[in-house]
Amino acid sequence: MNLIENIREGLRSIAGNRLRTILTSLIIAIGITSLVGILTAIDGLQNSVNESFAGLGANTFSIVARQDAFRRGGRVLRQDAPIDYFDAIQFKRRFPYGATISVSSVIAGAAQAKFGSRKTNPNVQLIGGDDNFLAVKAFTLQSGRNLTPNDLENSLNVAVIGSETANTLFEKKINPLNQSIRVLGAQYKVIGVLNKKGGFSGGGEDRMILIPLENARALAGNRQLTFDITASAPSVASQDEAVEEARGTMRLVRRDQLGQPDSFEIERADDLAKETETISGYLRIGGFGIGFITLLGASIALLNIMLVSVTERTREIGIRKSLGATPKRIREQFLIEAIVICILGGLGGIILGLGVGNLIASLISQGNGSFVVPWGWMGLGIVVCVSVGLFAGIYPAVRASKLDPIEALRYE
Predict the structure, then answer these.
(1) What is the pLDDT of residue 2?
(2) Could you report the per-residue pLDDT of 57-98, keeping only the tens digit for each?
(3) What are the tens digits of pLDDT across the range 214-249?
(4) Is the separation of the CB atoms in 227 and 86 below 8 Å?
(5) Crossing angle for the helix pair 3-16 and 18-56, nearest 10 degrees?
């Protein structure tokens, strides 16, 4: 009995026990689904994050004040004074490098906008910004126009609103442009509507309302505001030079003493992308661990089923041995059956894992992520399936090959 005949016999045995084959394959499929599904979801989320950072531009960086307090030995470390309006404007005027700079401030993170009898939930982000804000933050207009220098100089009551805010207030029945809305007791004329952006902020950027910076300062009254500075370097190649120029300029503006650390932090878009990649790496390790444990349980179940199969087919094994089948051929037959069952289950698990993983990634990224086909993880899934088949089939195969043919023929 050669190897090809062994393969044929193994396939015939699998076809003759369809219910057992299907149930066993389902056990493997569930394990592979958990492995491929988790890893596919992580890859899909990472792609969505990368697309979000690509939208910002790899040459973008922000200057912020670190407000997180770290206590060590009773001392507070790395708590910077807020960047005030004077710091932000002075930096914008004194920065010598040819970068596009935007100054903005969050006036309210949980405001409520009203139009007639309709109103939003109190989750609208009211931002004061300049005419560079939309370009630097990679927003695009669906309709209307951006803020202009005239709007800023005269502190006009005009606003650019996010797509979700527009849909909530106007329900796609009324053209939002030139309509008047109320936010924090002030009335603003809508001059522009932004395209849907989505992302991992929970849709917060689609609930944004942008008003002129000077108008926002007046609306805040005596409340101290923290201003954010975002700059876009002329090119990716010049970003390192632009960041160092920005660091030196900001140290002069903030009057940081020579030898003292910066009283601010510069966050680069590519640094954030690297951080998310590192986090995704840890998630992949965790996902692989969870999937491996699930597959280990599936392999034990397959081992049990193969042992039962050996017991059921003891007489058949005796007949094969009496006809000249060697222990090696008997081992091959049972190993082939185990591996084929695992591959069938693995293929089903890969298909399910692709669907489940991409569905999870799409739900979390609010439908902005693209469909991901992780060929590497799929290949790993097939390798794992074969390994599980070998692990679960080798002991039953060895046990079957050692059966005494006389005793096996007597088995009822």
Answers:
(1) 65
(2) 557 888 888 765 444 444 555 567 888 889 888 998 888 777
(3) 899 888 888 888 888 988 877 666 777 888 888 888
(4) no
(5) 100
Q: What is the mean pLDDT of residues 175-190?
A: 92
Q: Is 184 helix (H, G, I), strand (E, B) or coil?
A: coil
Among 276, 275, 204, which Cα is nearest to 42's? 276
Q: Pairing state of beta strands 60-64 and 265-268?
A: antiparallel
Phi, then psi, of 333 in degrees rounded to 5: -60, -45
> Bridge-partner residues for 61, per DSSP?
231, 268
> How wide is the angle at C-alpha 140 spanned by C-alphas 233 and 115, nearest 5°?
130
Identity of residue 89: I
For 226-288, list the strands marked E by DSSP: 227-232, 265-268
Assigned token pair, 241 = 């030079």
Q: What is the mean pLDDT of residues 141-163?
A: 92
Please give the structure tokens belonging to residue 20.
């057992």
Q: Which DSSP state fits 161?
A: E
Beta-carbon contacts of residue 218 (< 8 Å; ≥ 6 apart): 155
% of the chain with per-residue pLDDT over 70: 84
Other beta carbons less than 10 A from residue 125's beta carbon: 20
pLDDT at 370: 64
Nearest CA among 252, 248, 158 for reference residue 210: 158
Residues 29-40 have pLDDT tens digits of: 887 887 788 878
| Cα–Cα dist 322/325, whole Å | 7
Cβ contact 231:99 at 8 Å: yes
Mean per-residue pLDDT over the chain, rounded: 79
Quickly tell me which residue has 């998630």 as its tokens.
Answer: 283
Question: Exposed, middle or buried, 4 (CB in 10 Å: 0-12/13-18/19+)?
Answer: exposed
Return phi, psi of residue 144, to 5°.
85, -155
For residues 364 and 39, give the distance between their C-alpha atoms in angstroms, rounded to a whole number. 15
User: What is the pLDDT, as a whole number, of residue 72?
Assistant: 47
- According to DSSP, residue 321 is labeled H
Helix (H) or strand (E) holding 327: helix 327-364
